[in-house]
Inverse folding.
């Protein structure tokens, strides 16, 4: 179902997970955006002069490449004392060492194509962290796979939550303050990983098979929820708050279908959609009904230019 290909035969940019003679156990997973295609990513890692690598890369087609074995430290997080001091992430402060030693890295393919000479944008492929559906589900599976393998090899279980599943910006806020991009689907990822955390790998693979079968509906519902959430975040902005409220009020004609109160306020809509999103993100008898209600907003949002 999920395809993973070993690509590490020519890659030497990695080291032992050892510090002061002591074996370091991987305890965190770090997400990146590659700013390049899968081909350019591989070429970069295979170049011994680049001093860079990653354990895994996830293509926009959902295919996973493995470049470095989990038991080795890939050179992917960066290493500066300044970055460690600047990070506000508790795990970074607690460990106080080269994060390559205790992290497993995942790159996600994201790139753009520009016209030579003019620099005009010709193609855009998720460089700001937008993942395809295939890429999202492959990444979710990969997080669960890493958790399973680390537990098998080291007897340590990495919790799949926001303390131990991080972005590169949390590890190195100095040099990589935006990686894996402002549009990386953190809310959706954490919601899905909370489900994965309670399953074994085999059971989770069955869930992914089911979810991908219904992926178009789920993807649309999540897109609706993300857009409403983004508008909600702007409500307190002195410059954009009024415009965000105006856009949210455009959805008044369909609001009674998702909230029995029937009375629309911008903040009420944001709160209601957040509740539906939470139900849609986890197993339970209300999951499909929450997805259905979120999808009621989609046609009007497209008509009004909100999606």
């Amino acid at each position: 179902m999920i395809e993973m290909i070993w690509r590490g035969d020519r890659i030497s940019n990695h080291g032992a997970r050892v510090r002061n003679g002591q074996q370091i156990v991987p305890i965190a997973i770090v997400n990146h955006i590659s700013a390049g295609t899968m081909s350019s990513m591989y070429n970069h890692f295979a170049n011994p002069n680049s001093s860079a690598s990653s354990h895994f890369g996830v293509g926009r087609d959902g295919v996973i490449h493995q470049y470095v074995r989990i038991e080795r430290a890939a050179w992917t997080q960066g290493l500066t004392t300044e970055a460690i001091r600047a990070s506000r992430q508790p795990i970074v402060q607690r460990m106080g060492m080269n994060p390559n030693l205790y992290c497993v890295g995942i790159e996600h393919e994201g790139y753009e194509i520009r016209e030579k000479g003019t620099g005009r944008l010709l193609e855009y492929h998720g460089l700001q962290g937008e993942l395809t559906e295939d890429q999202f589900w492959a990444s979710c599976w990969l997080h669960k796979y890493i958790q399973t393998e680390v537990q098998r090899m080291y007897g340590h279980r990495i919790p799949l939550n926001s303390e131990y599943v991080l972005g590169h910006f949390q590890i190195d806020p100095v040099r990589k303050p935006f990686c894996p991009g402002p549009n990386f689907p953190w809310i959706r990822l954490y919601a899905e990983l909370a489900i994965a955390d309670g399953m074994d790998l085999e059971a989770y693979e069955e869930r992914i098979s089911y979810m991908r079968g219904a992926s178009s509906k789920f993807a649309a519902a999540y897109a609706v929820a993300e857009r409403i959430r983004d508008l909600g975040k702007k409500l307190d902005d002195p410059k954009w708050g009024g415009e965000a409220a105006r856009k949210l009020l455009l959805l008044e004609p369909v609001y009674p279908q998702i909230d029995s109160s029937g009375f629309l306020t911008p903040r009420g809509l944001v709160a209601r959609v957040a509740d539906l999103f939470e139900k849609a993100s986890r197993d339970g008898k209300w999951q499909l009904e929450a997805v259905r209600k979120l999808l009621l907003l989609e046609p009007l949002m497209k008509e009004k230019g909100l999606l």
